[in-house]
Amino acid sequence: MSTYAQLLHDAYVLVGATGTLYAATVAIVAGVCVLARKPQRRRDARATLELLLRQQPRSR
């Protein structure tokens, strides 16, 4: 395998791993958002989720 092909393959693997890690992080934060018992913790998780998904904060 040529050096260029190996570099391209490694880049695809890195992009896939990064995407998987990001999706897992969003899923965990969304779970905390729903399952947290304390309202403050739910608000913090919701704010973090808004940052991760790059959404504008909702007026409360």
From TrEMBL:
The keyword Transmembrane helix applies. Keywords: Membrane, Transmembrane, Transmembrane helix. The chain crosses the membrane at residues 12-36. It comes from the Bacteria. This is Heme exporter protein D. It comes from Streptantibioticus ferralitis.
